[in-house]
């Protein structure tokens, strides 16, 4: 089932997510719905707060990037990179900071350069509640960091300069009020 994505301004996007257990109600269906929702919106990541749940769950699927020329050198690593992250904790961020123009399904029509470290070590449970500790770099680390921020109540717009924030203030207000044209299901906090 395709779920509405919560728009910028929804209080759930600012809540730090709670850990869940293996017996979380309908977890398998929730994960399936999240992938369906993300795919219908042409996203490559989606976190539970974006569908209104303040829990520590996010998904990523960077396989669409495998055909992008910019990632030709890592296409093999990207083509099958579809993962579920439950109760994730980033243990370490290292390497060079690099800028990348990020967007977010909860903040449509806004893209800004965000600096992030290029390598992470993350501990998480998969959909079968098997524990993993893994290291990622390149675009995979970036997508994971972006989704991880969501379960911490952080948005990519929090990581841009004060000047840039002032410049996009009007756009963010329009998003909160539902004054955007999007082709996916969305729930706006202030829509009249």
From TrEMBL:
Active-site residues annotated for this sequence: 147
Swiss-Prot/TrEMBL cofactor(s): Fe(2+)
A molecular-function term among this protein's GO annotations: metal ion binding
Catalytic activity: N-terminal N-formyl-L-methionyl-[peptide] + H2O = N-terminal L-methionyl-[peptide] + formate
Keyword Disulfide bond part of the UniProt annotation: no
Membrane-traversing stretches: none
Superkingdom of source: Bacteria
One Pfam family here: Pep_deformylase
Residues holding Fe cation: 104, 146, 150
EC class (word): hydrolase
Cofactor binding remark: Binds 1 Fe(2+) ion.
GO biological process, one term: translation
Keywords: Hydrolase, Iron, Metal-binding, Protein biosynthesis
EC number, as in UniProt: 3.5.1.88
Alphabetized Gene3D superfamilies for the sequence: Peptide deformylase
PANTHER family associated with the record: PEPTIDE DEFORMYLASE
Function as written in the Swiss-Prot or TrEMBL entry: Removes the formyl group from the N-terminal Met of newly synthesized proteins. Requires at least a dipeptide for an efficient rate of reaction. N-terminal L-methionine is a prerequisite for activity but the enzyme has broad specificity at other positions.
Similarity remark: Belongs to the polypeptide deformylase family.
Name by which UniProt lists this protein: Peptide deformylase
Gene: def
